[in-house]
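User: ok so my PI wants both of these folded by tonight, can you help

Assistant: No problem, let's get them done. Here's the first:
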Amino acid sequence: MVKWEYMSFHSVWDAQQGMYEVHDASGQMHTFSASAEYLSHLGEDGWELVAIMPAYSVSEQQQHVQTSEVVAREFILKRPKDASE
């Protein structure tokens, strides 16, 4: 039976820089022009994407219309645990 190791990180869009700020599980921040860049990097280390969830959003109401924009997302990944663990 396969045993899995899980990790998560969150990504925040910085509109001023036009970059994603990625905060990994250790608290380090990385910047990327696309989340796919960081996901590709993790894929090379054996991580698979399991889910993406909105972490928080900004909403506003103008002329009786409510709009909402997700500005941060939580990414959940997994990879097989080393058999020796």
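One down. Here's the second:
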Amino acid sequence: MSRIVPALAWSDVFSFDDYGALLQLVSNAIIAAGVLGIVGGLIGVFIMARDMAFAVHGVSELAFAGAAIALLAGASVVAGSLVGAVAAALLIGLLGSKARDRSSIVGVLMPFGLGIGILCLSLYEGRSANRFSLLTGQIVSVTTPDLGWLIGISLFVLVVLLLVWNPLRFDSLDPASAAARGVPSTAISLVFMLLLGLVVSVAVHIIGSLLVLALLITPAAAAMKVVHGPVAVPLLSALFGFVSAVGGILLAIAGTLPVSPYITTISFAIYVACRVIAWSRERAVRHRLRRGSLA
């Protein structure tokens, strides 16, 4: 009787042979992922507060299109994704002042960006890994010059985000009251969309354009389940983003799979754990209330 051999062995997913040498090869990606995880976790709090998860996906598709055009033209992929993401963010910010308008604009931009990107990739005759990395990320694609750009963009976003933190938070939680108090809502929205575009352009190189939500949405959504307050939520979200990004790369080094499945799995596991904690707390509160009413 013939023995059934599994199609996928454990060694195909994880192999820690020469792990130290491989770790040095992807040191740039680890640094970039750590910075991105922190910044993405912080800006994700405002993405959730402003209900703009769908807009993130729209911006990522234009970042993918810009990166694909740059790849086909032999230009800098970082610069291409940056131009595409910023253009999409500004279009959404300028034309989508209302939630309904924003959703329709994103719905128009997403298929356009994805179509342009796929067209450019189909015309590209270089290495297939370069094409695949734009969609799912590639840990070895972060060169030293790229690292400088990625860190510079991330630090710029972090500084500007901290400068506009209070008015942005006020406008995100209660836009009507913020406008009545003299907060320039239009300018704040445009600044936020610009920062969002910059962060997405960085995320495309780490996790790919299809899965940026795992670093810009999931950490903040998880943090909001277990903590409250203007300080605790951003700090925990940044920690979750850092753990997801860096942990995913550290696991990906030992495997043959793209980096994105590891990052998204860690991020999702954190979210599930936070949901369970929140559910346990709610159950305990209901139990105490029930006992108090019976007493």
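The radius of gyration is 21 Å. The chain has one domain: 19-294. Good luck tonight!
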